[in-house]
Amino acid sequence: MPRVDRRTLLLAAGAVLASGCTAQPTPPAPVKPTLAPSVTATGTRRPTGPQDPKATADARKILAWMSTLPQRDVKRVVSGQQLSADARIDYDKLFRGMARRYGRTPALIGASFDGYWKKETVPVLIDHWRAGGLVTMELHRPNPFLPKVDPESYRGDLFAPKDDLTALLADAKPSQARSRWRADLELLGDIVQELDEAGVTLILRPFHEANGIWFWWGQDHKTGSSESVRLYRDLHAYLTETRDLHNILWAYSPARPWDAPRMKYYPGDDVIDIMGPTSYLNTVSFAVEGHTEDISDMLAPERPMALLEVGSGEPFDGSWKATEIIDKIRTRYPQMTMFNVWHGWVDAKMALIEISETDTLMNDPWVMSLENLDWRG
């Protein structure tokens, strides 16, 4: 059976919810989007640096640099591309291939710590960092509550009851699920440590899209709840305290509010450095269709904003215009400092090199590539 990409499930979830398969009130009539936030920034939550007091010098430098980007006239948005598990093959196609075709290489490299993880990914990330780039990672680990490890089990039945995430915490009672999850954390710690030893700063966004119902760590459809905040903070404590790793910038990455408000599972100002929402379908947006386009909830913590996962919707034939990304950042979301385009899969074209108008995007004066990324001065 062919592997089904998680994007297919996410898009299906949005379609199911939009179609009214569950009892929902009649949606409001479409309103003209408002671009001004409804919450006035006060400066009281603006951090002076990473929330980890032991953060490395480069982590501090990157975050400070990101904070200045929205004030620039040019070179203010970092371009990025996600890899699949075949990191070396993808790097040649999606990064070197971009340089060969357009003379521009994505500056940010994204990797997924998933059930298909390969050790060869780490050297690829290190090499990109040493070439002057930036590195981000998210988690798609298999569901630890299942009796058998299945790499595709990060997703599941949208409406099935979710397991109790507190059973995975450091102080939880022994169980097979807890042992499996703690082993995953140990492996993640080894990866981050290897990156640390190579001098790499990692933008890490665990438990992304927790306000959706499609992942095992996400919101329970029936109860409307999740303990993902506790799981996030437990992972944060494991890496920063137990493993003493401080080469991390921590991101919170909500989905559109199809199932729950974007900030419902925000782990807290004391652990989050970057606001990194996701956007799929053919229009870059963070709202449910027909609702007011107001991102004041995500702006309120006053963290640097980054579009850490973005991609098209159907038909996945390469016709989606890459310029949609920078056009929407310029006109609606000027706070955004990065974008990271998801990779394609079998019979689906989504990567930068596979879609249209990529040359125009990468040569836009607002966009930074590896060739002109300047965070190091």
Automatic annotation (TrEMBL):
Highest taxon listed in the record's lineage: Bacteria
SUPFAM superfamilies reported for this sequence: (Trans)glycosidases (SSF51445)
Signal found in the keyword field: yes
Record: active site: 209 (proton donor), 309 (nucleophile)
UniProt domain GH26: residue ranges: 57-371
Region called Disordered, residue ranges: 21-55
InterPro entries per the UniProt record, alphabetical: GH, GH26_dom, Glyco_hydro_26, TAT_signal
Annotated keywords: Glycosidase, Hydrolase, Signal
Signal peptide: 1-23
Transmembrane segments: none
PANTHER family, sorted: GH26 DOMAIN-CONTAINING PROTEIN-RELATED, MANNAN ENDO-1,4-BETA-MANNOSIDASE E-RELATED
Sequence similarity: Belongs to the glycosyl hydrolase 26 family.
Identification of the protein by name: Mannan endo-1,4-beta-mannosidase A and B
Species per Swiss-Prot/TrEMBL record: Kibdelosporangium persicum
Lineage: Bacteria, Bacillati, Actinomycetota, Actinomycetes, Pseudonocardiales
